[in-house]
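We recall that each integer encodes one residue's backbone shape. We quote one record:
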Amino acid sequence: MKGTEMPLVRIDVNEGRSPEELARLSRCIHDAIIAEYGIPERDYFHIVTEHAVGQIVAQDAGLGFERTDGVVMIQIFTQEGRGRVAKEELYAAIAASLAGAGVAGEDVFLGYVENSASDWSFGFGRAQYLTGELAVPAK
């Protein structure tokens, strides 16, 4: 399902990357979302946060690999309606895109959070999807 809903993306990393490297991580993730979900280019809402080493804990979850201090923790907040296949394709596209920026597959950690149109305000204290200022994305 291609749509127009914008995701809000949080990217948490350990300190040590240059501003250009941080921008590239964000861009790689955004490009993957555009390719997989067909969102408009300008639906670009990312928060990149650096943490002192030791403030991100991302241990092995029983899968048999270790992460490095280069871990990239990603949270994607978006409207509900994407199926399992679309999500899996997005996860793979993000990992592949980040690999091009030098991020190892084991260092890509992603959480996907769905919500509804009533859970968004883009400014002025209004829920623009509910007021009709923005069209609710088709499901």
